[in-house]
Amino acid sequence: MNLGEPQLQEAIAKRKAIWTDFADIRYLRFSDQCRDVLRGTVVVDDRVIHGYPRIGRILALGRGLSEQFSAPFWAEEKVDGYNVRICRIGGRTIAITRGGYICPFTTDRIVDFIDSSVFDKDPDLVICAEVAGPDNPYVESCPQFIDSDIELFVFDLMYLDRSGFIPHADKYRCIESYELPAVRCLGRFTTADLGKIRETLRRFNEEGREGLVFKEDTPERRCTKYVTSNSSIADIRSTAENILELPPEYFTSRILRLALFLREQGLEHSAGLDRQLGAAFLDGLLAAIAQYEQDGKAHHRFRCRFRQRDSALALLAHLSDVARHKARITRRDLRQDGEHWVLEYDRTYPSLNTLLGNLLKGGQMYD
Amino acid sequence: MNLGEPQLQEAIAKRKAIWTDFADIRYLRFSDQCRDVLRGTVVVDDRVIHGYPRIGRILALGRGLSEQFSAPFWAEEKVDGYNVRICRIGGRTIAITRGGYICPFTTDRIVDFIDSSVFDKDPDLVICAEVAGPDNPYVESCPQFIDSDIELFVFDLMYLDRSGFIPHADKYRCIESYELPAVRCLGRFTTADLGKIRETLRRFNEEGREGLVFKEDTPERRCTKYVTSNSSIADIRSTAENILELPPEYFTSRILRLALFLREQGLEHSAGLDRQLGAAFLDGLLAAIAQYEQDGKAHHRFRCRFRQRDSALALLAHLSDVARHKARITRRDLRQDGEHWVLEYDRTYPSLNTLLGNLLKGGQMYD
After folding, report:
1. Which stretches of B45-160 are assigned E, i.e. beta strand?
2. CB atoms within 10 A of CB A342
3. I need a labelling partner for A31 at 20 to 30 A (CA). Which of A112, A293, B105, B217 fits?
């Protein structure tokens, strides 16, 4: 373990590290950064899985790349899902979310995507991956190129008890030799390749892909990301049910991203794009209102499939625990389907329902 | 005066009433409500001009009207401008803004709209009106039916030292006999007239009008308002420069209004409406970015015309004082044009310019 007992005790005392349970595993979860220990860091069985660092976002591609990087960099596809770190601890393979929870869903499904023999060969390996797809329990949007269930895309490798990443060349070698499903790597570029990168993003935008993550090919490994206008619209489109929970900058930052993407690509905002943006705001909200009028509440229906029935129950308990007063989780169905269990549940945001209830009854707002 | 000295002293002690100067007039301005004295109330020369009360907004027309009213009500056109109260104090006619400032601009222009003999006949009269038009100093949006300069629309009458309004029948009589320019009154309705009211709003929406204010024809005079989808889009369209200053609910509440207007009118959101909404978000922001790149800053150019040159200078001083750190006011031009002085000035929001500067230089955002 590369964290000392005093560091852990300090984080616990400050309530930045919290003892958490998953099945029979008791682990320490950093719910916030504490000194140089990142949020999402987990300590379990005296091993440390370091948090995945935040990646800044540039909104002007050309100036951003030359401002952020002073060496060649790799460009990898950014996939719209949730971030996990996968490792083997005490003989068991677990998946940890960005926030440092062992995820009952992802942990259950790892074997569908990663051959566990990887951890026989390389026991201290930590696989950093995005999980995306329509049947995931966290994210309401998903890539257009995934039709059903989920897929897993590896984008980084670390080791237990170490906070850095495996260098890029080694990473790509490992991904190949372990046959890991990986995000698409577009290649190694310099800022002189701006035209090529811009062209890739234009194509990504047309294909409904989210964007690129850029990783400097140096030991410091500076990173930055850049998203397509399609991604900004997809984010807005998926906000209907939790629209009242969003921070003030949610819309402004996405509209700014969108405007700067158009400018970068030398595009006018076409009538088609305007229409997409307007529909992104209205489609979901009108559906939520119709749902409220029909069922007495607006909610988002989630579906995901598990190998073990118990994992589905553990996910429900986990989601209810994390949502607290902000959302209500209601199980709708849990049925066997071939070798999987299919769970359906609703996530309901009381704030939207309370407001709609008041307004549709004829109540007033003051603003 | 119907406010006691102890009430005034309490409000002053709590910093809810503030001594303010306009030319040689010293007045007490209620910057916040204090007990039952409304925000915007002004005390000058021992006379009280009571604040104009806030009017709640219904988002569901039919249910809203029957929930809010238990008697017939008047429907008046809601005009997209700023609210003033006009009265004569110490021989001088002044116009007071919603927030309780004597407005140098409106005060200067009153004579263009209201015959001062009104106050000879009725010295304690307080005229409540909306001032709207492209050449106004406060509001970035304006009604489509006003091509240039400003117009003034009376919608209520009060008396000095009294907090209630003149009853509707008397109000309409006074408006007629004093030849005051008034908002359009659509008539007296009951909740059984919902179809007619809905039809008026559909027409208003097509004509680019803002909406209706409903005023119960009872001594309690409950009021409520309802706006068209056109109004919500116009609000969004006019936010480009101060997009970062907006409270979190700014967009959500307008999109909710828009969605509920469509539902009320039994309209699907057409491709045309989606396009309008998308363009409302993007047009202004793209123009602001282009302006930043060309001039080094994004700002909104205001223009308004005065009878007196000094009034223009007083407005600039007033705006700078009120804007404080949130916006910068820069005079651009002040020239004579016939019998008026035309002032042009820019309102610049440093927050947007700082953010654009950082992003266009290639800086990162974390979210």
Report:
1. 47-49, 57-58, 73-78, 82-89, 92-97, 125-132, 151-159
2. 16
3. A112
Task: Report pLDDT for A324.
Answer: 80
Nearest residue to A16 (alpha-carbon basis) of A8, A25, A4, A24: A8
Average pLDDT over residues B262-277: 86
Residues A292-307 as b/e (b if ≥16 CB within 10 A, e otherwise) read beeeebbbbebbbbbe
Torsions phi, psi for B182 (to 5 deg): -125, 160
The secondary structure of B247-282 as a DSSP string is: -THHHHHHHHHHHHHHHHTT----HHHHHHHHHHHH
> What length is written for chain A?
367
Are the beta carbons of B197 and B84 closer than 8 angstroms? no
Cβ–Cβ < 8 Å for B217, B71: yes
**CB–CB of A29/A10 below 8 Å?**
no
User: In whole angstroms, how far apart are CA B287 and each of A266, A268, B241, B280?
Assistant: 14, 11, 10, 12
Q: Which residues contact A106 (CB under 8 A, 6 or more apart)?
A: A84, A86, A95, A97, A131
Give me A144's structure tokens: 């257009």
Residues 46-65 of A with CB under 8 A from B: 54, 56-60, 62-65
Of A182, A176, A231, nearest in space to A76 by CA? A182
When CB atoms are compared, the residue of B224, B244, B269 closest to A286 is: B269
Average pLDDT over residues B268-292: 89
* Residue among B40, B20, B69 nearest B224 (CA): B69
ipTM of the shown complex: 0.88
Whether residue B252 and residue A244 make contact (CB cut-off 8 A), yes or no, is yes
Residues of A in contact with B255 (CB under 8 A): 243, 281-282, 285
> CA-to-CA distance for A29 and A16, rounded, in angstroms?
8
- Which residues, in sequence order, are CB contacts of A269 under 8 Å at separation 6+? A259, A262, B278, B279, B282, B283, B286
Rounded Cα distance between A2 and A160, Å, is: 9
Q: What 8-state DSSP symbol labels residue A282?
A: H
Residue A1: predicted pLDDT: 66
Query: Contact, B243 vs B285, CB < 8 A?
Result: yes
Q: Which residues of chain A have pLDDT under 70?
A: 1
Summarize pLDDT for B217-235 with one digit per residue, the tens: 999 999 999 999 999 999 9
Summarize the confidence of residues B74-98 as an average pLDDT: 97
**Distance from A74 to chain B by nearest Cα, in Å?**
18
First to last CA, chain B: 54
* CA atoms lying within 13 Å on the CB side of residue B35: 10
Q: What is the DSSP letter of B315?
A: H
A95 φ/ψ angles, rounded to the nearest 5 degrees: -120, 130
User: Could you give the CA distance from residue A284 to residue A256 in angstroms, rounded to a whole number?
Assistant: 21
Q: Give me the half-sphere count of Cα atoms (radius 13 Å) on the Cβ side of residue A212.
A: 29
The one-letter code for the residue type at A244 is L
